[in-house]
Amino acid sequence: MGERLFRYEPDVVSPPGETLEEMLEERGMTQKELAQRMGRPLKTVNEIVKGKVALTADTALQLERVLGAPASFWNRREADYREYRSRVEEQQRLAGHEEWLRALPLPWMRKYCGLSRTRDCTTLVKEALDFFGIASPAQWDTVYTHPQALFRCSKPGPVSLATS
Description:
The protein is built from nine helices and no strands. It starts with 15 loop residues before the first helix and ends in a 19-residue tail after the last helix. It folds into two domains: 78 residues, 434 Repressor (Amino-terminal Domain), CATH 1.10.260.40; 48 residues, no CATH class. By secondary structure, the chain is mainly alpha-helical. It is elongated, with a radius of gyration of 26 Å. Helix 2 packs across helix 3 and helix 4 packs across helix 5.
């Protein structure tokens, strides 16, 4: 198993729309005024504030022009928020894979492969997926239980060597 990268993963990440709403309040600007300054429909600005739609790179540039915060700030906030949401959804999906986990030789994997001694199912599923280099337990079947190649076997019998 390769080296793991340890990085900060916050427990909660707010959508960029909350930051946008705070900036508007600080400036005494309404969503309607922001929409006018950006040349965007009010509905779009409102959906961004509510976190219903993702901030695009173009929107980030427009926010940079109107509010002064760099586009990279908005893009990073959006990317962090989307990654956080994906991790939360993954956590929920992985929680239901106890049966798959029970099929693995966990004591052996803990001893020889570096799996932790935690009893938390989701953590163990993540560690096992990392070890095997697969994205989900469904990929386990594709990669490890179904053959990738089929070989043709000849029936045993006498082999004749042609000599000239």
